[in-house]
Amino acid sequence: MNHEKTAASGVFAGIERVISLILEWLAWAAYAVAPLVLRIALALPFFRSGLTKWDGFLSLSPAADFLFEEQFKLHIFGGVYDLPAPDTMAFLDGVAEIVLPILLLVGLATRFSALGLLVMTGVIQLVVPDGWANFHLPWATMAIALIAIGPGVLSLDHLIGMIFRQSKPGGAA
């Protein structure tokens, strides 16, 4: 009888150990993968939008100019206003919608890129105030999360950080 209790205890201890290992692995996977998924989810809509703004290398499409000059208006305090310097804003927006998502995808300057896209989301909210629930709120949430938690271990930021920590005197070899 005592032998049965010991055997059962051993089986339960083994099962408990396996479950513990699975939970540890899932926690690490979530820690590693969640920031990557956030970076991809935030980058894709901006990058896709950015692709529509260009006709070639540094050649803004006429449609992008038209949007910023004629279609996009600021909705502030109940009034509707033209965008200031629409040609410049169209160019800056086009550049930002390509560069910032690429930086996010590779995890380089992640917090800065997420902050840039958060600011862009705020401006987009002023231009398209009805999009807050379906688009702007999730984008802002993802950007804020990336600013708070950082790029994660699957990023160039993390790799660069490891290299610099190792190259410091007294750093890990």
Key phrases:
173 residues; two-stranded antiparallel ribbon; elongated
Description:
The protein is mainly α. It has helices spanning 2-51, 62-71, 86-106, 110-127, 132-149, 156-167; strands spanning 54-56, 59-60, 73-76, 79-82. The strands form 2 sheets. The chain has a two-stranded antiparallel ribbon with strand order 1-2. Strand 3 and strand 4 form a beta hairpin. The longest helix is centred in the first third of the chain and has 50 residues, at 2-51.
Cα end-to-end separation: 54 Å
Report the principal-axis shape: elongated
Helix content: over 70%
Reading the helices and strands in chain order gives HEEHEEHHHH
Q: β content, as a range?
A: 5-15%
Strand order of the largest sheet: 1-2
Counting helices, strands and paired strands, the structural category is: mainly alpha
The counted number of beta strands is 4
How many helical elements?
A: 6
Radius of gyration: 24 Å
Are there runs of 5+ residues with pLDDT below 50, and where? none
Describe the largest sheet.
2 strands, antiparallel
Mean pLDDT: 91
Compact description:
The chain has helices spanning 2-51, 62-71, 86-106, 110-127, 132-149, 156-167, and strands at 54-56, 59-60, 73-76, 79-82.
What topology emerges from the helices and strands here?
Blueprint lengths: L1 H50 L2 E3 L2 E2 L1 H10 L1 E4 L2 E4 L3 H21 L3 H18 L4 H18 L6 H12 L6
Antiparallel strand pairs: 1-2, 3-4
